[in-house]
Amino acid sequence: MGNILFICGSLNQTTQMYAIAQSMMKEHACYFTPYYADGLEGFAARLGWLNFTVLGGRHKRETMEYLARHNLRIDLRGEARSYDLVVTCSDLIIQNNIRNKRVVLVQEGITEPESLMFHLVKWLKLPRYLANTSTNGLSNEYDIFCVASEGYADLFIGKGVHEGKIAVTGIPNFDNLKSAQNNSFPFHGYVLAATSPLRETFRWDDRPAFIRKCNQIAGGRKLIFKLHPLEDTPRAIREIYKFAPGALVFTHGSVDQMIAKAEVVITQQSTCTFVAIALGKEVHTNLNADQLKQLMPIQNDGISAQHIAQTCERVLHTSLDVLKAKRRQPQTRLKRGRADIS
Question: What share of the chain is helix, strand, coil (3-state, %, to 5)?
């Protein structure tokens, strides 16, 4: 029996961590913490300056509420005990107290396209979070990276992730997309627009132009907006009511279920685009739809969490000294999906 720390983030990341933990709780002591940071980022988070990120605000509040509702053991910042394994939702920040631990990284969902900032981060060794999720996996401060599909394995390897660290397991919440069809969302036959927090993460977003585009695509049909949890909600609602006064706006609820009842889905840069493609919806997106089909998460009827838990068990039973030595080795070319931890 070992102690395992699950580092959560957004509600989506938190539910993924819990899904993995459910397959490990009988054999191990599982503890949970909201996402956290050290140094300047940690200081800024404590002052509330980063409440628009997973380090505070709505994300931290919803994570704590979720953990309490499910009676899960909480260890804030993982400071109360020593851990045999850490399972984390993101390596954009590697916390100081997990650097010498066994670490399994789990892909949350879609990754941002590679922008100029992505290349600046790589070339100048800037903090990875400046390029958002486009730099997922590039820390090399973990032992296994559980990813959504073979397509994503190729994508991450192309960015520089060590091939021998990738395990193609599928990811919880996106491995049984057809299940979204069974829901009681009260509307149907509408055009759904799922927004992204581009401005909140310091990227360009001409929101009035996007709303006008949604109006044009809707062509008189009912238009519904589902706001991303990271968005500045009051500002987003004001803009929608100004440029699409007849639209409905939802700030909470399952976007997957909303997609299932929609005729047309419009997204900016959102993981829920996978749901729309999987359910055969007419899709309009800023992303490359053909590439998304290649990246589509494995659909395995919802057993990805079990596959990830099995991978975690393998890491737990590997000598920490062996794992540390492998982190210092140059990239090796091994068969994808068969991460080398023996």
Answer: 40, 15, 45
